[in-house]
Every structure is written in structure tokens, then in C-alpha cells.
Specification:
By secondary structure, the protein is an alpha+beta fold. About 25% of the residues lie in helices and about 30% in strands. Its EC number is 2.7.13.3.
Amino acid sequence: MSLGIFIVAGVKKTVKYYLLLIFLSISFLASAQLVKFQKLSMGDGLSDSRVRCIGQDRYGFMWLGTSHGLNIYDGTQFRHFFSDAEDSASIPGNDITKMVFQEDSIWLGTRLGLGLMNVVSKECKRIDLGTNFDVRTLFLEKDKSILWVGTSTGLIKYDIRSGKIQEFNTHNSNISHNTVRSLYKDTSGNLWVGTFDKLNKLSLNSTVFEVVDLKQDYNPKIKNDLVLSILPDDTTNDSILWIGTQTGLVHFNRFKREMRFFRDDNSKLVNSVSKTLLKASEHKLWIGTDFGLGEMNKDFDIQLHFHDPFNASSLANNTVWDVFEDDSGTMWFATNNGVSILSRNNNRFQFYPLVFNQANNVIGYEVRDMIEDSECNLWLATQSGVVKFNSEKQLKEIFNAEQALSKKLILNETRSVLEDREGKIWIATNGGVAVWNPLTKTLSHYTADFEAGSGLRSNYITGFFELDDQTILVNSYRGLHRKVEHNGLTGFEFIRNIPNVSAFHDQFLWSFKGSKLLKTNTKSFETFEEVDFRMNDKLFLKSILFSENDIVWLGVKNGLIKYDLGSKKYEFYEIKSNKTFSLINLLADDDGSIWASSSSALLKFSPKTKLFDIYPNGKEVPISRFVEDCCLKRSNGELIFGGQDGFIKFSPADVTKSNYRAPVKFTNLYISNKSISVGEKVKGKILLKKDISFTEDLELDYASGSFLIAFSSLHFGDRNGIRYAYRLEGEDYDWNYINSNVGQASYANLHAGKYKLRVKGTNNDGVWNPEEAVMNIRIHPPLLASPFFIVIYFILLVFIILAIFYYYSRQSEMRNQLKIIRLENQHAEDIDRSRQQFFTNISHELATPLSLIIGSIEKLGKASELKQKSKKYVQIIENNVRRLLWLNNQLFDFRKLENKSLSLKISEFEVVEFSNKVFGLFVDKAEQKNIAYTFISDMDHLLVKMDFRKLETILFNLLSNAFKFTPSGGTITLTIGSDDLESGNSMFISVKDSGVGLSEEDQQRIFERFYQSDDAKKMERGSGIGLSLVKEYAKMHEGKVVVNSQLGQGSEFKVFLSLQLDYDRSEPFSTGQDNSEPLLKPQTDVKIHDTIANESTGYPTILLVEDDKEIAEFIQFSLKDNYKFSVASNGKKAFQVIAETMPDLVISDVSMPEMDGIEFTKRFKSNSKTAHIPLILLTGKSEKEVQIAGFKNGADAYILKPFEIDLLEIRIENLLKDRVRFSQHMKIDRIAKPTEKSIVSADEKLLKQIVACIENFMTDSELNVEKICKETGVSHSTLYRKVKNLTGQNVNELIRTVRVRRAAQLLATKKFSVAEVMYETGFSNHSYFSKCFRKLYKVSPKEYIDHI
């Protein structure tokens, strides 16, 4: 009917609103009666659209037999089972005809045989029926011992326990036909069999059938009467049977043989073929036919349901093969086009569409506000005018821009409606205010007059409020107005702008601002803050509802606030869901429950339980979107919520819940987004040994610690109301809520350990099932978390705890010192500044006496009366004083650089000659190290104006570094040149060597103050400021330094200096050449290797280990009359000298390159050949720790620099005398000592016996305490006590000591390798052998051999 109306409306535009009236009227009347089916098809996962039978197992899963495969459905997905000729555990055939459930099994009838399917293992056992394989129907007796099988070739009685079969056919039992389509056994023990043509009865204990003709004389053209279904009218009293046949439905009294027929010619049935029957729990008889579904009540009245191609909620197909009612009361209908499902709670929420047709297009309107007037009429403010319905819900009037003048609005956009106390209807539009007077049937309009400056300030009206004194307030986009009467004319007076006004209550206008609830006094129109619900930064108030006892309900995002106006206290009730619900409408029903809507759902809050029920938009709430501030409670208690294309109306009392407790089952396991099936291997391991639904324990490798487990609430039909809560104990602190029909718990990167996944769910109405689905999950640890590593971690943890304890114990001490440290820091800074100033003053003061000493020494050195030996001392003094003065000058300049007060002292001098002089300072060192030392200049002479002392420092530092890092046999070249001699702008100095070179990192940092490369730290001492000064001096001369180096191939430092130096020409400068002499003088070095000061063999030999050549030369020169010397520059070279000549005494410096004095002393004294030789440590380090380390490693004396040569000579003499006396004493002791008489105690004898036993079994790595006890005849406790008393060791330690001492003996012979000695002494592990040996001898076996 409505379709026809739409077509006419498309043809003639002038009648479209009249058609809208009719359409709305029809929609309002029809919507309440509409039955809505849900559909499952191949698009949802069914293996075939032709569904033949439906059932439910004891766990709640649905099973669907189709013409192509068996399906199991969990509410979210299907799993399929097909016949496989090569798999004996598969179903016998794909065309499923009947299913009968028995505990954990399903009897499957197929066109290719009978099978017994296990619902847990999903394996099927095939039952051999011989040639009767075409199974058409099944019936299981109550005691579950006999299964009746109807086939196309006869009836079979199958004994389940014994497996025996008995056949009934037309040849042996008088059955009317061999094709059996229906079976039923009544309470009297009679078996009723429906065949191809008639009804048959097999009485108890009989083997011959009685035939009953149900067709009789009806429709003679049909020769047979196929009996398709047999059903008792009452399960407790089956005297009446319902029999579905090919020619109609029969109400059959089996005792009286009375029949009542329901056919297409005498009932509402449009098709007589009654394929399937079911008596539902609501006492309705469902009749599946070849054309439509019948629903018969107790009065035999039939309501029909058909497939409507234009209605997605209609029956899926008109051919109905099976009807089934599941545990929740949901009805299932098997059709030729999938399955239709009918929920018990259907049409609780009625949808009233508001649409019309224009140019063959169906157009919907948004409902924005609604009221009920004093006559119970319903007024709707919509996107296209106002619609009025009377109390009988019939459309009465429309107000819009297309209506006649009396009902014509200026613009169609309306936003709000209000009925005042006079009965007038106020309409808020985008074109001002419209007022309908129902008495005069007139419509008045009030619009903004922008030129007058008074009245409405905007035509965009948003709402109305009527005060207690009947004053009408009009709210617009530009502010709040008051209706005023002047000379009988209605006008409006602007009050003020109050945004977001939502309600009028108790003389106040209430509005929102973020999380603040504001109220405006309607007398003074002042706005006050009532309360600020600052629960979080993102809270915004959305809706408001005033209820009894001064309680205000406020809708917010994902929750509801209850606010008490009296106590000013509030409570927040959270909507626990994974979806977002912003409550934009609030209503209270007669029972005090709060109904709310978000844009996508209806919600009910119970103040008693403090819980929310959620009814999402969808099949049961068929509206696409709810609109803000559009709700109404009618006088009869009905609630209405408006939105897109219409509104939802319902009576809260009719919204009941199903009490069905839907079981929740696990349905799938995903690892790395891949579904895991039963028996499937993941990285070589089977995770699921049985179906996930029946798996209680799940073990996963650590690599599989990221997984997803799917679960489902087994309540079918409209599943939009299902909610889940899950929690993984050991990971989650609280429950996670899901508002979806699909349940999934996903976890990633779980730690190894044991977990328990707990899941609970609701039915379709949100009623929770307290019974949880539980799965124990164990994540195995990775290799690094294995027990072995856990022990290691525990040890580390203990260590860390001890360290932390130590740390915090130290903290208490440090806290007491913090205040002192703060004060000391300030004091230290003051002292540091004073020290630096003192350092500067001292450097300045030292310059004068050092200069005087140099002058005096020069005079003394020229005196002819000095002996040659005295001149040598004078030379040493002069060289070191000059060196001290040179260092003092550098330090003085360095201090000035820090203070940025260093300046140039310009003098004019010849730079080539000056550079050659500095070059000469290193000639002797070059000869000593066999270095090819070259000076190159591309000019004969060059007169420059520079600071020659700073140039001397540049040259000396560069050459000194070159000699440090160039090995013997290398090359060093000093080059003086000019980039442009003609212009005379600049010159360069290049020092190139073939030394160790610099890495890229070192080249970046080499000019930083105090930075030293790794090679510099290893080879010679230095301060780290030399190159820094070179760079600064070059800058001061308007030049730069460039380094070019490759690791292992040498370096070149090139200094560019400006010859056009910009300096203060008012300052005088020297022009003489005498002042440009280098401060340092050339010196002859003493040869380091094997230098013999006194060739006489009668003097003691002293090995002098010293890297400072002047110190070495001074000691030799001073003591050459009494001692013979060998010299080495470091500890490593000292051992080379010792290998050639064994000294009588050793003097060693501490700080040396390659091997320092402490390491040398340790190795020297640990060698049995040299341990007796006296050793004196000579150093400038006065630290106590260094002295302790020296004496600890065996040093005989420790003398600090500077030292007196006489003191050193006396210390040498005493040590040599002590050695002589000790040698004489040892000789006398050996000669004079009488032979001691050996007195051996019983304990000593036992100890010798034990040692002998160990030696006998030396090569046996398995030697232990038990074997020694057996060999010596001593008990374990006695052996342990004796060994402990005699040696201080336990037995195992004694065995290890004897083995190691024997190993030392064998190693000392140098005839065996370390490995051979290890196996000879019973050790099987090299690292353990080395560890034991080092513990006893303080060196490794290899080092032991080297020291012998």
C-alpha cells in the first residue's frame, strides 16, 4: 500500500505532504505488529544455503545440517565439516537429513549413511547399515538404547549397545512403503512411522505394522500422502498427535482415531505440505510448509509469515524444512535460503519512521524536539516543519513552508516546541518565532528587526522556557529574550547572552560550561556556578534531568552523575564498556530508573543495582542515530527518544529481560594473527590437543606470548546487547569490558609464568551469567630465563641487594656530609681562585731566581779551574734549570691563556737560523734512536717579526711529540717554507714523522687541553697542554695548525704563521739576534742499553730501570766508582737485560711506559731466580697507595724523588751487605745444623698414608672421599676431622693441593705441555686446572713455566 502511495507521490508533487500523512499513519499502525526475523546465510559463513535440520548440543553450540556439509555456530562464526573418503573420522555424507543429540554425541543421518559425531573431539564414527545407507529420519528412544533409522529402503532398529540391527520393510512387516520420512514412539510404546504414502503403527512387542490412511478421499489426483512429520500435542499426554503430510496438517487422536484437517482450502494455510512441526514453549505450534511459515495458537488460529524481498527482516525463504527452539527460547527456521532466527524479546522498542517520497526518493527527517500537549497530542519539531499527532497516533496537522497561510512557516528548519499555559504552541525555527493559537487556528510570526535595535536579535531560535509567572523566555543564537506585551502587541526584550541553557527548574535556568553546572536567577538573570565536576580534564556535561528529593542527574561521556542540590554531594556511575557512550538525553520512568540515550544506543540505569543495561542501535532499536535534547515522557508513562528519520517509543514496563544464563565458551586461538586448529604444530609443538572450547590448560612458548583468544556468549538472535568482561590473572588488575557480540582477549609480550584467563558474559539483554569460562595459561620462559639462569640472576640479585644496602648505608653517612660539602665547595672555589693566583705569582717569582741560576751556572761552566767531573755536574744542573725555566714559562703562558691576558712580545729575528738551532736540540736523540732526522728550508734566511719564545715553544713541542711517537729507524723532517715568498704574506713550519699516527677521533680532539691519545698515555708521560699551546700561539700569530695523519703511517703537523702580523707598533721590540737564542740547550744522552760505567768485574752490578735519561745518567755518573751499571728504559726491557746478565741489585722507577715499576716488581719478585735480589723503587709519586703496592709486591726499599744521592748510595750498600750476611748465615746453618731425629706421630702417619693414596690415584679424575676412606680404612667423619686438624683443609681441598703441587713439579721439568700435565694430575677441565693453579701459585701454569 505504501509503495503505491510513493509512486503516486512521485508523479504529482502537489499531493506529497498529503501522502506523507497517510504514510506516517500507516507506519505508526503497522510498526508495532511487525515480526522481525534475523538471517544467517552463506554470506555469514554457512557452507550451503539449503539448511535441512537444526539442533543444539549440551554446551550451547548450534549445529546446522545442510545439503552440503555440517556446520557448528557459536554466534560469531561457522565451522564446517565435510565428508572425506580418505578420512574415516569424517562425516559419512555431506547431505545432512536429520540430527539427534545424545549427551556428547550427535547421531547424523545423511543420504550416504549414518554417523555418530563427538561434539568434543569433532570426530565422527560411521555406522554400518548395510545397503540401507540413504537415511531420511531418526528417532532415539527415551532410554537411549534404541535408535530408529528411517531410510529410503526400509526401517531399521539399531541397538546402540550391541550394534545389532533389525530391518523392517514391505516384505517382512506389512509396512505401507519402504521410504520412511517420520518417526515417533508414544508413551504406550507404539511406534508411529510416516512413509511415502501412509501412516503406520507398530504396536509394542509386535513385528507387523498397522496402516492408517490419513488422506482418505481428499484430492484423488494425488495417489500418495507423504507423511513428513509426527509431533505430540503435549509432551506429558500424547493422545493427540500432530501429523504433517503432503496433503495437509492433521490433528489426530490416536485412541479415538479422530482427525481434524488443516489444509489450504479450509484454513489460513496457503500451502498444504506440512514439512515440519514444533510445539514451542509458548504453546504455539509452528508449521513449516513449502510456502510460508505458520504460527498456530491454542484456538487453532494461524498467523502466516512469508519471505518479502523488500524486507530484510522477513522470513529468509518460503520453504521451511525444520523448526527448532533453543535453550533460550529463540526460534530457528531452516529454509532453502539459510536460517531465520526469531528472538523471544521481539519489538520491545517500536520505531516510528518520519519519511516522505519526493521524485521517487524516500527522504527521512531528523526529529529535534517533541512535546505532549494538554490534550495528549504529540508535537514533533523536525528538519522540515512541525508534525502534530492526536492521542490515537493519527497524523492531524503539519506546519511547514509549503502549507496554506494559516499553517505556513517562514522556514522549514524547526528546533524546539513549547505549549504555554494558555495552550498556545511556540515553534522555534531558523526564521524566527512562530506561535500557533489552537482556538483561533492562526499562526503568528515574530522575526528579528535588526534596524530597530529592539526585539529579537536573531532569527535562529533554539528554545523556549515558561516561568512560573507565565513569562515566556526565548533563547536564540544571539542571547536570551523575554516576551513582553505593549499596547496589546507582543514583542521581545533582550536580556543577556546565556549560552547552552538546557532546563528551567525551581526559578533558575540551568546551563553547562564544560564540567561546570551553572544556574541563572530568572529575576536578576545573574549566573552562578552551582558545582564543578572536575573529575578529569575531558569531562563535559551533556544532559540534565531533575528528579525527586532535589536530585539532579547529569549525563556525561561514559557515565552518569547523581548530584544532590541540598548536600552538594555527587556520585559518578561509570558505564563499563569498550565503546563510548555520551549521554545526550535523560528521562526517568515511573519506577525511578533512569533512561538515557547516546547517539548510538539506549541505556537504562537502575539506582538500586547501580548498573547499566545497554540496548545498542540495530535490529531491535532500528534507528540510526539519536538527537541531543530530543526525548519525552508521556502522561501514560511511555518514553520517546527522537532521532534520524523518526523516533523510538516504548513502555518501560514492557522492556523485560530474558533470564537465560547464556554460557560463555572459548571459540578460537590466534598466534601471530593465525588461527590455530586442533593438532596443528606451531614451531614443532602442538598447542591444541582438543577443541579450544574444551581446553582447560594452554601451554605456550615464550615466542608465542603474544596471542588472541576469541570467546562467545551462546545466546543467539539479536546479539547487539551482549557484553563481556575478561581478566587475565597475573596481568590485569581489573576486568576489561567489551560491548560487542564478538569477544576477544588479546595480549602481547607476556612474561613467562602462570596465568588464568577468566571470561564472563551476558545474554542478549545484558543479564550476566555468574559462571565463568576459565583457562589456565602457562608461558614457558625463554632460554635466558631457565632455572640455571635464574640461579645466576638470584646470585646477581643478592649482590645487587648487598650493593644497594651498602649504597644506602653510605647515603646516611653522605647526608651528614652534604652540608659540609656544600660549604667546602664554596670554600674550595675560593681556595682554588687563591691557588691559581698564587700559582701565577709563584711562576712569576720563579722566573727571576731561575734566570740568576742559569747565568751563574753559565759563568761557572766557563771557569777553567773546574775538574771534568764537576763540569759534568754543572752541565746537568744547567740543562735541568733551563728545562725548569722553559716549563715555568709554558705554565705561566697557559695561566694567562685561561685568563685571556696573554700577549705577544714581538721581536725581529732570523727564523731559519732560529729554527735550525731548535732543530739541533734533538740531533743526539735522533742518533740514539737511529732516526733519519732532516731539516729543510726553501729559503736561506727570512727575517720575521714574531714572539720568538712562542715560536720556540711551537717548534719544541712539535719535535718533542714527533720523537715520542716515532720508533727507532723512522724519519722526522722539519720544514720551513713560505707559501708566497714574493708577496711575503705567510710562512709555514712542518714537522712530519713516520710514527704511530692518529685516528680520526684523535685528530678531532688532539688540540683540546689535557687531551692525550691512547698511544700517548702508553708511551711517555705528558701534560696534554703542548699541542693546545701550539694552536693558541699560532692563532695569536694570525695563523693556524693543520694535522694530516693516518693510523700506523705517521703524522704531519703544519703551522701557518702570518708575516704581516697586526701588532701594536707603539710597543718597542728587539732587533738583535742575541736574544733569539733557544732557551734549551743541546744535551748528550746516555745510551740506555747495556751501558757499563765501570768495567771492573769486582764491583756489584746494578740494573737501573729508568725512562728518564738524565736521572739514569746522574745516578750512573755519581756511583760509577763503586758499582757497575746496566740500564733499561722500562720493565719489559729490564727482563731482556736480566736474561743476559743477572744483577746484584735493581733500582726501578715506578712510572714508565709499556711496563711500569709496580708490575715489574711483581713479576721480578714472583720469579724464583730473581726473588732474592734486592729491589729499590725510585719515584716521584708520594701517594701512600703506590708505596703499599710496591712493598706488597716485594720491593725492599722505596725512595722518593727528589732524593739525595748519598742516601741512595747508603741504601744500596746496606741492602747488598744484608744479602751477603744472609748468604753466609745460610751456609753456616746448613753446615752446623745437626741431623734431627724423625719422630712420627700416628696422625702424621695417617696423613702420609692419605697423601700416598692421592699420589697413587693421581691420574684418576673421579678420585673422591669415599675411595680414600676405602683405601685407608678410615671412616668418612674421622677422615674429615683428621685432615681438617692436620692441614686446615677439607679432604677435597687436600686432593686439589696435592694435584697442583705435583703439576708444579712436572711443569718445572719443562718436559711436558700444560695439557699433558693437566691430564697427568687428574684434571679434566683446562679452565678449572688453571684456576686451581693460580689460586696456589698466584700465576697461571703458562706464566709459571715462563718464570722458571
